[in-house]
Design a protein that fits this description.
Length: 90
Amino acid sequence: MLFFFYIECEKTKYNFHMNYASFPTKTYFEEILKNEKTIQYIYQDDKLTFEKVKESVVALRINFESMTETHIIEQISTPIINLISNIGLI
Protein backbone atom coordinates (compact mmCIF):
# COMPACT_ATOMS: atom_id res chain seq x y z
CA MET A 1 0.00 0.00 0.00
CA LEU A 2 1.37 3.39 -1.01
CA PHE A 3 0.56 6.62 0.88
CA PHE A 4 1.27 10.15 -0.30
CA PHE A 5 1.39 13.04 2.13
CA TYR A 6 1.10 16.41 0.50
CA ILE A 7 2.43 19.62 2.01
CA GLU A 8 0.75 22.88 1.12
CA CYS A 9 2.61 25.02 -1.38
CA GLU A 10 1.17 28.25 -0.06
CA LYS A 11 -0.35 29.06 3.29
CA THR A 12 -1.02 32.35 5.02
CA LYS A 13 -1.63 32.40 8.74
CA TYR A 14 -2.05 35.47 10.90
CA ASN A 15 -1.96 35.43 14.68
CA PHE A 16 -3.59 38.35 16.39
CA HIS A 17 -4.06 39.73 19.84
CA MET A 18 -6.60 42.34 20.82
CA ASN A 19 -6.18 44.82 23.63
CA TYR A 20 -8.56 47.52 24.76
CA ALA A 21 -7.80 50.79 26.47
CA SER A 22 -9.58 54.03 27.15
CA PHE A 23 -8.74 56.55 24.44
CA PRO A 24 -8.13 59.42 24.40
CA THR A 25 -6.99 60.36 27.84
CA LYS A 26 -7.64 63.82 29.24
CA THR A 27 -4.01 64.74 28.59
CA TYR A 28 -4.19 63.67 24.95
CA PHE A 29 -7.48 65.52 24.55
CA GLU A 30 -5.73 68.70 25.70
CA GLU A 31 -3.09 68.11 23.00
CA ILE A 32 -5.85 67.77 20.39
CA LEU A 33 -7.27 71.12 21.50
CA LYS A 34 -3.90 72.76 20.77
CA ASN A 35 -4.06 71.66 17.11
CA GLU A 36 -6.39 74.09 15.33
CA LYS A 37 -6.30 72.22 12.01
CA THR A 38 -7.62 69.08 13.65
CA ILE A 39 -10.46 70.98 15.28
CA GLN A 40 -11.40 72.73 12.02
CA TYR A 41 -11.17 69.58 9.91
CA ILE A 42 -13.08 67.19 12.13
CA TYR A 43 -15.41 69.40 14.12
CA GLN A 44 -16.56 72.16 11.80
CA ASP A 45 -19.95 72.89 13.37
CA ASP A 46 -19.93 71.74 16.96
CA LYS A 47 -17.98 72.69 20.00
CA LEU A 48 -15.28 70.14 20.71
CA THR A 49 -15.80 68.31 23.99
CA PHE A 50 -14.00 65.42 25.62
CA GLU A 51 -17.10 63.22 25.31
CA LYS A 52 -17.44 63.90 21.56
CA VAL A 53 -13.80 63.03 20.96
CA LYS A 54 -14.09 59.88 23.05
CA GLU A 55 -17.11 58.75 20.98
CA SER A 56 -15.61 59.53 17.58
CA VAL A 57 -11.85 58.88 17.78
CA VAL A 58 -10.16 55.50 17.66
CA ALA A 59 -6.50 54.57 17.83
CA LEU A 60 -5.49 51.51 15.85
CA ARG A 61 -2.02 50.04 16.23
CA ILE A 62 -0.92 47.04 14.15
CA ASN A 63 2.24 45.22 15.19
CA PHE A 64 3.78 42.23 13.51
CA GLU A 65 4.94 39.37 15.68
CA SER A 66 7.40 38.24 13.06
CA MET A 67 8.11 38.93 9.41
CA THR A 68 9.33 35.55 8.18
CA GLU A 69 8.44 33.37 5.22
CA THR A 70 8.89 29.65 4.79
CA HIS A 71 9.33 28.26 1.29
CA ILE A 72 8.74 24.55 0.72
CA ILE A 73 10.13 23.26 -2.56
CA GLU A 74 9.34 19.78 -3.81
CA GLN A 75 11.85 18.22 -6.15
CA ILE A 76 12.81 14.76 -7.35
CA SER A 77 15.76 13.43 -5.37
CA THR A 78 16.24 10.33 -7.55
CA PRO A 79 15.03 10.22 -11.16
CA ILE A 80 12.90 7.16 -11.98
CA ILE A 81 15.56 5.65 -14.27
CA ASN A 82 18.15 5.77 -11.47
CA LEU A 83 15.66 4.25 -9.03
CA ILE A 84 15.01 1.32 -11.36
CA SER A 85 18.75 0.95 -11.94
CA ASN A 86 19.48 0.95 -8.20
CA ILE A 87 16.88 -1.78 -7.63
CA GLY A 88 18.65 -3.86 -10.26
CA LEU A 89 15.95 -4.15 -12.87
CA ILE A 90 18.11 -2.59 -15.60
